[in-house]
Amino acid sequence: MAGPSLRPHVHWAQRHRELYLRVELSDVQNPDIAITDNVLRFKAQGHGAKGDNIYEFQIEFLEPVEPKPICRVTQRQLNITVQKKESNWWERLTKQEKRPLFLAPDFDRWLDESDAEMELKEKEEEKINKMKIESRVPKDPFKHLKKGYLIMYNLVQFLGFSWIFVNMTVRLFILGKDSFYDTFHTIADMMYFCQTLALMEIMNSLIGLVRSPLIPAVVQVFGRNFILFVVIGSLEEMQSKPVVFFIFYFWSITELFRYPYYMLSCIGIEWKPLTWLRYTTWIPLYPLGGLAEAVCVVQSIPIFSETGKFSLGLPNPLNVTIQFSFLLQIYLIALFLGVFVNFRHLYKQRKQHLGPKKRKMK
């Protein structure tokens, strides 16, 4: 035979439009909260006055309420907000005149009717003042033009990198490893176009078209263009190396999710699977891309040393030549620092977009 149900201590307060319930339970698990026929029914596992048990209660409200409560769980308690159907002041919470023993006023939030009216009036005045301030801010006459430009930019980049990815994938399935050796000659023109166009990302950040930080954009764009135009593009010996395939492939996969995410953001659309991919795929792809770029630089150093290309000879009497291959060795350090800068920036963004949020239940 089941014993009597345990009831937690519940504190309540009200405003003209809302009811607040604070349930004194810590470490709440599996809360079951519903309002049917104007009766709130609560059941949950938690630690209360009677230890770790299942607690439950029900409250029949004095007047009609909305059937969708909002619940916020913290480590020490559980808060429930209930909307009244009509904005007015209740003389008590429950339909029954006698107050249940487990129910008490929440003096931390308690206000008299006159104080609550004053609070409501202050909120309305604050809202009106905010609207007045916003109306004084001049509207940007080029807002739609800027948005259209950003949508087109991200769309063009998405199509360009999609072409690169699809082309390389099809060639890989048809030719196998042989596709590694002529990747540059097949893909270079489109990659040149996309990476040259990517310089606009620096300009967009400089003039405030986007809120992205300038330094990560500069690091990524100039880092990629240095590898593409200087290390690979200027040396025919490097253009047939398999590492070129991996560099282009890692770059294109990353942009398949980045550009459509930004394009949808321009029109205020957030698709959660795309957001997750945007802020998750970089975790393996950025280190792999950085490693492929480092391998490319290491493979090019002997070639630059042998040919003397881009080396700088100082005039007499110094008669000293600064080997470009030596500068590449310094660049290797900068490359990994750049990967770290972008990794740190994207990690912060991932926490912002995908990090844990307050648990709410409607």
From TrEMBL:
Catalytic activity: (3R)-hydroxyhexadecanoyl-CoA = (2E)-hexadecenoyl-CoA + H2O; a very-long-chain (3R)-3-hydroxyacyl-CoA = a very-long-chain (2E)-enoyl-CoA + H2O
Membrane-spanning parts: 149-170, 190-207, 214-232, 244-264, 285-304, 324-343
Membrane topology category: Multi-pass membrane protein
EC number(s) on file: 4.2.1.134
Gene3D superfamilies, A to Z: 2.60.40.790
Functional note: Catalyzes the third of the four reactions of the long-chain fatty acids elongation cycle. This endoplasmic reticulum-bound enzymatic process, allows the addition of two carbons to the chain of long- and very long-chain fatty acids/VLCFAs per cycle. This enzyme catalyzes the dehydration of the 3-hydroxyacyl-CoA intermediate into trans-2,3-enoyl-CoA, within each cycle of fatty acid elongation. Thereby, it participates to the production of VLCFAs of different chain lengths that are involved in multiple biological processes as precursors of membrane lipids and lipid mediators.
GO terms for biological process, alphabetical: fatty acid elongation; sphingolipid biosynthetic process; very long-chain fatty acid biosynthetic process
Protein name: Very-long-chain (3R)-3-hydroxyacyl-CoA dehydratase
Statement: the UniProt record of this protein carries the keyword Lyase: yes
GO molecular function, one term: very-long-chain (3R)-3-hydroxyacyl-CoA dehydratase activity
Pathway assigned to this chain's UniProt record: Lipid metabolism; fatty acid biosynthesis
PANTHER family reported for this sequence: VERY-LONG-CHAIN (3R)-3-HYDROXYACYL-COA DEHYDRATASE (PTHR11035), VERY-LONG-CHAIN (3R)-3-HYDROXYACYL-COA DEHYDRATASE 3 (PTHR11035:SF20)
Originating species: Strix occidentalis caurina
Key words, A-Z: Coiled coil, Endoplasmic reticulum, Fatty acid biosynthesis, Fatty acid metabolism, Lipid biosynthesis, Lipid metabolism, Lyase, Membrane, Transmembrane, Transmembrane helix
GO CC terms of this entry: endoplasmic reticulum membrane
Coiled coil regions, renumbered to chain: none
Subcellular localization: Endoplasmic reticulum membrane
Family from the record: Belongs to the very long-chain fatty acids dehydratase HACD family.
Domain CS, residue spans: 5-94
